[in-house]
Specification:
Rossmann fold; six-stranded mixed β-sheet; four-stranded antiparallel β-sheet; nucleotide-binding; cell membrane; ATP hydrolysis activity; ATP binding
């Protein structure tokens, strides 16, 4: 569904991502993890064409991204950044309606079908009681759900999320991640997230991509990637890794900081 081949990305004269190869299959839920400054968000923006690639190719549904019109990309893929802002007078319903823009003619108005999709997206995210509320009046978790509703109204095949749990308390973090997982599983939307919390990445991912210093260090299922040795090498942290009974994913218990080893 989404594939990067030999991709290099940089800006302001600095190269951030180096010759990355990554393939994300249709319907997968993938988390990108790694230390601060390793290039996680830059890679996500390169996959969405928000940042141009210096070299290499990104393909979306088999087509090279650089050859596709922006509107067509927006019909197939949506990216939500770490911090999303709206005008002070915008309601939840108005925000969600913006998800229909890629499907409208430049001179068009919302159709009955568009309104039905907007209602559906609001219902999917549990925001019926908030549809007339101003987005700026919502809590962090409610606002994040409103942005996800906007993304759903766009009807994308691929959803990219850059640290979707940033600034949220633990309850709202889990609420948002449960919503994202239900969107992925029930609607079949291919989902790629940048996450910092290793336990969240473990619990909510089909596979994990580890980035260090602009290179992909390894990819695989959570139980293959999140080992004590990998955490020590990538983060310089000693950690205990356990499998809770009946769980298919590992639980990480950081213990202490160590000297970072070279890969």
């Amino acid at each position: 569904m989404l594939e990067a081949t030999n991709v290099t990305i940089g800006y302001d004269g600095k190269r951030i991502i180096h010759n990355v190869d990554l393939r994300i299959g249709e319907g997968e839920m993938v988390s990108i993890i790694g230390p601060n400054g390793s290039g996680k968000s830059t890679l996500l923006k390169g996959l969405s064409r928000l940042i141009p690639c210096e070299s290499g190719t990104v393909r979306l549904a088999g087509r090279e991204l650089r050859s596709m019109p922006n509107k067509q990309i927006s019909q197939l893929m949506c990216i939500l950044s770490q911090s999303n802002q709206t005008p002070a007078d915008m309601t939840v319903e108005e925000l969600v309606s913006y998800g229909r823009l890629p499907h409208m003619k430049w001179y068009g108005r919302l159709s009955l079908e568009d309104y039905a999709i907007i209602d559906w997206a609001i219902a999917q995210t549990g925001l019926d009681a908030f549809r007339k509320r101003l987005v700026v009046s919502l809590s962090g978790g409610e606002a994040q759900r409103a942005w996800i509703a906007m993304a759903l109204a766009q009807r994308p095949k691929v959803l990219l999320l850059d640290e979707p749990t940033t600034y949220l308390d633990i309850a709202h973090q889990l609420e948002v991640l449960e919503l994202v997982r239900s969107v992925n599983q029930e609607l079949g939307i291919t989902t790629v997230m940048v996450l910092h919390d290793l336990n969240q990445a473990s619990a909510y991912s089909d596979s994990i991509c580890v980035i260090r210093e602009g290179h992909i260090a390894l990819t695989g299922k959570p139980k293959e990637v999140l080992t004590s040795a990998t955490i020590r090498e990538i983060y310089g942290v000693e950690a205990e890794v356990e499998f809770v009974r009946n769980a298919q994913y590992p639980r990480i218990h950081p213990i202490r900081r160590t000297q970072v080893a070279s890969l």
